[in-house]
UniProtKB/TrEMBL annotation:
Residues 112-128 have a biased composition (Low complexity). Residues 129-144 have a biased composition (Pro residues). Keywords: Membrane, Plasmid, Transmembrane, Transmembrane helix. It comes from the Bacteria. Residues 111-144 are annotated as: Disordered. It comes from Candidatus Thiodictyon syntrophicum. This is Uncharacterized protein. The chain crosses the membrane at residues 25-46, 67-92.
């Protein structure tokens, strides 16, 4: 078994030099720091990478899907042009093409003598009515 070093022999060494058989505190602290830094940078990278997709959620469904596909392409190909295109697409509002096209189709149908499609009838959800507070719920008749 090795003898411990005499304190007079190690007085000139820096504080981070560990004596034989003792725990290297600096190594443990730096290992924890590096692990936390790598995890933190990864979280930041994925949050930043998902930024265009989060911004597109307030837009139209088609716009959000295109931005999501561009973000996935940028993630898997490491091509920043896809990410920039997705970010620009998320920032710009997409014009509504469907409303004028539906209006044109209805007008052409009326001009051709077709019947106007019936307006959709709102369906009332079957919600059981609750009795007013303080009254007993109605009971069903039982067979005897």
């Amino acid at each position: 078994m090795a003898e411990p070093l005499h304190p007079a022999a190690t007085h000139h060494l820096p504080a981070f030099v560990t004596a034989p058989g003792e725990t290297d505190v600096l190594f443990v602290v730096m290992t924890i720091f590096v692990l936390l830094a790598v995890i933190g940078i990864g979280i930041f990278y994925f949050k930043l990478h998902a930024l265009p997709e989060q911004m597109a959620h307030r837009g139209q469904k088609v716009q959000m899907e295109i931005v999501a596909v561009l973000a996935l392409l940028a993630l898997f190909t490491h091509n920043h042009a896809f990410w920039i295109a997705g970010l620009l697409l998320a920032l710009l509002p997409m014009p509504d093409f469907m409303t004028p096209l539906v209006s044109i189709a209805r007008s052409l149908d009326r001009m051709a003598g077709g019947a106007e499609p019936p307006a959709p009838v709102p369906v009332k959800a079957a919600v059981p009515e609750t009795p007013p507070p303080g009254t007993a719920p109605p009971t069903e008749p039982r067979e005897v």
